[in-house]
């Protein structure tokens, strides 16, 4: 009964490859997010979707492209992976965009070699 | 200046003591303040949120907010070794709704 799930949990790949991370939530929430947590544990928002519409788009390289096929899913595609993309990527969801509680997925640990 | 600042620690306290975690923020338009706990290798989980100046208590946890000083803190009473984790302060802007996180304070509670 996982509330927010992500796949894969671990991702090891070579520079220049393209990869995708998938996120699903079964909480019935309208809003979903992608965060990046670097090696120093700094957690920074990348994107947010509300009811399949993009509402937050931080200064992220355009190699990163989110896609929300429906309210329960938010995927992240990364083109031409670089060493600096190595991090933990967390998906999260909340009832709405201004709701106090965001529920985080388990994270995807990406290592670019 | 970072938007949300925390001392990275580690903050070491003995079991049973009060742990005090502090956070300052730069945006005066911030309206909501959150404390998340993150165990090593795990995802952040919400402990408490606070909107109004003053104290908010929930079990062993007390959040304190002082908007004039742009300061928010978390007190953990009767600290347990299971409280050992990184505590992330997060601030939500009135204008953007996005959460801005601090870099976290690592707490170690020793028996």
Describe the structure.
The complex is a heterodimer of chains A (113) and B (111). With 113 residues, chain A is mainly β. Helices cover 0% and strands 56% of the residues of chain A. In chain A, the strands form two sheets. In chain A, strands 2, 4, 5, 6, 9, 10 and 11 form a seven-stranded mixed sheet that branches. The relative contact order of chain A is 0.34. The mean pLDDT of chain A is 93. Chain B is an all-beta fold and 111 residues long. Helices cover 0% and strands 57% of the residues of chain B. Chain B has strands spanning 4-5, 11-14, 19-25, 30-38, 45-50, 54-58, 61-66, 71-76, 85-93, 99-101, 105-110. In chain B, the strands form two sheets. In chain B, strands 2, 4, 5, 9, 10 and 11 form a six-stranded mixed sheet that branches. In chain B, strands 1-3-8-7-6 form a five-stranded antiparallel sheet, with no helix packed on it. In chain B, strand 9 and strand 10 form a beta hairpin. The mean pLDDT of chain B is 93. The interface between A and B is medium-sized, with 20 and 20 residues.
Which SSEs are present, and which pair or pack?
The complex is a heterodimer of chains A (113) and B (111).
Chain A: E1 4-7, E2 10-13, E3 19-25, E4 31-37, E5 43-50, E6 53-57, E7 64-70, E8 73-78, E9 87-94, E10 103-104, E11 108-112
Parallel strand pairs in A: 2-11
Antiparallel strand pairs in A: 1-3, 3-8, 4-5, 4-9, 5-6, 7-8, 9-10, 9-11
Chain B: E1 4-5, E2 11-14, E3 19-25, E4 30-38, E5 45-50, E6 54-58, E7 61-66, E8 71-76, E9 85-93, E10 99-101, E11 105-110
Parallel strand pairs in B: 2-11
Antiparallel strand pairs in B: 1-3, 3-8, 4-5, 4-9, 6-7, 7-8, 9-10, 9-11
Q: Main attributes?
A:
heterodimer, A: 113 residues, mainly beta, seven-stranded mixed β-sheet, four-stranded antiparallel β-sheet, 11 strands, globular, B: 111 residues, six-stranded mixed β-sheet, five-stranded antiparallel β-sheet, 0% helix
